[in-house]
């Protein structure tokens, strides 16, 4: 019975959403962009997809191994597939990617901003000839002759990844805070003195063993730029939570002692609402550029920074929805059945409270993409070796004639952001109970 | 009302503390060494640089002036092996190396002995005396090179914590001291260092690290930053935001010098945005579902999704480009040659006007979209209410209904946006001001970020946060004054705001 009700709500929302033509169309647009982003290395690559060279067959675009060994009459010839210019080689047979350039790779024959309409040059046998149409830069080139389409295709990857991962972080924080504030409100969280003390001491000690002692290793992981940092961070978080759980159990034991068993109401909602309010009143963009400027430039850092600063909308919506849901009968009956708060929150309430958060997540992804492109535009946070839509525009700003460097990346940003905003708007309309009648 | 105000102001305090803590954490963790930044920009006399003792003294002086010889915060939790006076090592790299050694070995006494013996080498390098035999035996170049090599090696040793690197460097030092007779008096120091280094390795007490110790400090950097030390700093409370690394001027002075243009642009753009967006939003709401409504919605939505830096760059390449349309100058706010000496205010405005138009458009368009959508939404909600229907049923004209009855209540969101003017001006639009080269706060902040001028960055951040808070406070009070329906419960304060 409950299941069908839920299905009906879901079906109803989906129907409402479909009625919103622009929002529904945006879904298609986003799917298209996502496919392009996923297939980027196959769509724009200066390594051929398939190559026949000296009688041997290779798939340079698909292979992880950069060095290709080819047997010749006099021993073996080693080709570095990322460094060599395949277009200059005498190949028996070749299948190119749709765009035959990689982002950020120089093409000196067409350097210094060549317009898509003007004549492009191609170097063949040491002579400059006019560009064969297969190798044409369809949208022009940048300052070092780097192909614009290749940059756009790979930039889609960066933008979508940043949008998704940073919003994943934000959602995690926002949902946890929102659900705690909303479910417990100001009148539900009874806690004993023993537990409170145990948790407070536990946090300090867990922080000491999880982070302070390991600060050496964390710093080392941060400097060598590999995945080392993530692993160390994960370890730290694991240790932290393990110790915290230990102290939580200790608190349960301490509850049995006479003075420590006194319980009192913890106003969870007021406390967490204050936390949200504090975050709302921070100058977020200034905070982001400050932290991005201080930390070493890397995509992961940008994602973490954006994620850590953009969760307030999600938390607010989840909290408001949760305040409504916790008054519903099915939650009360779950409470009467003696389920633990965690189980009720996560298994019964969260699925229903998540819908409004979707609205905020959708707008949030759009916002994250805007922030990322602004950061790369001013050259902070994202490493200069990575081509993004924002960095392309900033490259185009060096040369006022190069309108293509400004128009096309800008359109990409606009379309993606617009799609996310439209979906957010569509979700809001579909989920708004006022419009149901 | 008074109770509400009091409650609101009380809530104001923890938020302020959090903002100050955040700013402080940023400034403490900022990379680079403030002492060497200050020393290098304060004086560039090579004479002093070569004197190690003088350099150490200078370092000590500056770290005292900047308050860096104090513990960071009111309390610290540290591994048991850490001495509670570790903060007195004012050089950050040295301190980090010591911390790392402590994590590896945990025996502070031996580490301290090793560290002091290195310091002694560093100071003794000042006392090298060259007699005539040395000068005959070695060329002046070689002598200089060897001395500077010894010096750099010692400095590197002071900031290294990798055991393998330390032993290699110590061997190098030993051969230096052994091979050059004028270094021979250092052999004693060298032996001592080697001995303490070996001792440090053998008497490891790593287990001490696993016991946390708690230290309390009443006088610390945060306290000093907030309340000043009475000599070098007056403290944040009295408006002292520190001294810029780059220009050596107080941060507050720099802010005063640059806030004018940012304030001007923010003010003009907000006024313009209101003038356009209110009528548009109201009309769209009143004629809900009409062609005007859907048209304006689409356009505003498009505007809303455009990145502002893109719009600004686009405006530049179209209207300030000699190839396309050269209607406006591309950058700055006044003619390059400055205003004529006897220009009156109106003449100045006339001269500056062409410079101001493109930035104003770029500043206005985004808040325009935002405001219109806000106005439309709140107007729609109000127009469907009973009292508006009653007003219509009474036979009032549409004009009176819309502008006198409905509009007043739809005005609420506007207060919020107005409260944001001051903080927005202070933070400036970092991106827009850089694109149009407006000498305002945004560009100044951007320069500070590029030059790693942390006192400036942190100052702007703190002040913006405080002003935002004040803005919200004023807005909430105005809300409560304008609309008696707003509840004064803590939830009401936060959640009625959009």
Key phrases:
heterodimer, A: about 425 residues, mainly alpha, MetI-like fold, 3-stranded antiparallel beta sheet, two-stranded antiparallel ribbon, 15 helices, about 60% helix, B: about 500 residues, 2 domains, about 70% helix, about 0% strand, disordered C terminus
Quick summary:
The complex is a heterodimer of chains A (437) and B (498). Chain A has 437 residues and is mostly helical. Chain A has helices at 2-19, 21-38, 40-43, 148-184, 193-212, 215-223, 228-254, 268-280, 284-294, 299-309, 312-325, 329-336, 341-378, 389-396, 403-431, and strands at 50-53, 56-58, 67-72, 75-80, 93-95, 121-124, 127-130, 190-192, 263-265.
Q: Work out the helicity level of chain B.
A: 55-70%
**CATH superfamily (homologous) name of the largest domain in chain B:** MetI-like
Largest beta sheet: strand ordering of chain B: 1-2
How many H/I helices of chain B? 23
Mean of pLDDT of chain B: 81
Number of E-type strands of chain B: 2
Helix content of chain A: 55-70%
Structural class of chain B, by secondary structure, is mainly alpha
The fold-level CATH name of the largest domain in chain B is MetI-like fold
The oligomeric state of the chains shown is heterodimer
Greatest chain-chain interface? A-B, 52 and 59 residues
**Fraction of residues in β-strands of chain A:** 5-15%
What is the succession of H and E elements of chain B? HHHHEHHHHHHEHHHHHHHHHHHHH
CATH superfamily of the domain at 149-189 and 266-436 in chain A: MetI-like
Distance between the termini of chain B: 22 Å
Strand fraction band of chain B? under 5%
